[in-house]
Amino acid sequence: MVYHWQSHQYRTSGVDDMVLLTKITEDSIVENLRKRYMEDQIFTYIGPVLVSVNPFKQLPYFTNKQVEQYQGAASYENPPHIYALADNMYRNMIIDSESQCVIISGESGAGKTVAAKYIMSYIAQVSGGGPRVQHVKDVILESNTILEAFGNAKTVRNNNSSRFGKYVEIQFGSGGIPEGGRISNFLLEKSRVVSQNAHERNFHIFYQLCYGATPEMQKSLGISTPDYFTYLNQTGVYKVDGTNDAHEFQETLKAMTVMGLSEEEQTNFLQVVMGVLHMGMVTFVEKNNYAVVDDDQYLEFPAYLLGLETDQLKTKMTSRVMDSKWGSRSVMRRLSTMPCKQILETSASVFWTYTASKSSRITASSSSASIT
Fold first, then answer.
1. Of which family is this protein a member (predicted)?
2. Residue 328's CATH number
3. Does residue 259 sit within a domain?
C-alpha cells in the first residue's frame, strides 16, 4: 500500500501537518497553506487542530466515496479532511464512552456553517439505526435549512453568512445510534432586520417568501416584491448569485414539515415573519407637536398578522406611560416622531428575535420531533 504522504503530489503541495514544518514561522505557515490551497488541498492539520481554507467553489471531496474512505481509517492513512475529524470524534465517543466537542471558529466567510453541515452529515451517514432513528437524523440535518433561512444573510464577504452563533448537541445511545438533538442560537444580529449595510441583504427567509410564495400566500400575507418593503429595499440588493430563493423557500417548508409542523402552524409562523416586514411600512408625522401614524392601514395589517389590536399597538408606538412622582398614579406621555420610529424598529427587532429563537429551539428524539 502507498499512503498519500508517499506520493509526489504530497511532496510538492506542502505538508499535511504543520507541526512537521522545519521552521515554524508565520511566513512558513502561510506559504504552506498557499501551496496546498493552489492544489485544492483546503484542509491542513496543526496537531489535533484542523485548519480549513474556504475554496469558494465546489470540490469533489464530500461524496459517499470519501465517507467510505475515512470511516474507521487512521488519520495518517488519508489526507487531512473534516471527515477524518468527525470520524475520530465519533469513534472516540463509542470507544471511551465520553462526550466529544468540536469548536468551529473563524472570521465571516471562513466556511464555519458549511463545516458544521459536513460534520453532521458525516455522522448521520456512518451511524446506524432503523426508520425511527432515520427520522431523528432527518430532523437534525433539516434543522440547518431552517436556521439558515431565519439566521443567515448575504454580506459583503459571504453570500450565506450566519448572523448568530449556534450550539448543536447530538445525543447518542449505545452503539453510537443518534437518539436526539438540540440546537440553540445566541448573539443574533437583530438590528439587521431593520437596517443593512451597503451591498448586503436582510435575512434569507424574507426573500424566499417574496420570490417563492404561492398566490394564496401572497394574498393572505400581503407579500409583494422585495423592492416594495422598507426593510428590504435600503441597499437595492435583492438577488444572490447562485441562489434560487424560490427553490430555497420550498426547502424551508419541507424542513418545517420534517420538524412536524402542520400547514396551519407553518402559516402562523410565516404570519409573524411578514408581520415584522410590514411593520417597516409604518411611518409617523407630526401633528400638534406629537407623532401620529401617517396612514392607519399600514398599521392595521401588521397588527392583524401579529395577533394584536390595532389601537393597542398604535398607543404603544406613539406614547409612553410614566409613573407619577406623587402617589401611585401613572401619566401617559405623547411622543414625537423620532422616539416613535425608534420604538417601531425596536419592536420589529424584538419580534424577529423571538421568531428566530423559536425556529432554533429544536428538540428531536427517536419517537418525536418538534420545534418548541
1. Belongs to the TRAFAC class myosin-kinesin ATPase superfamily. Myosin family.
2. 1.20.120.720
3. no
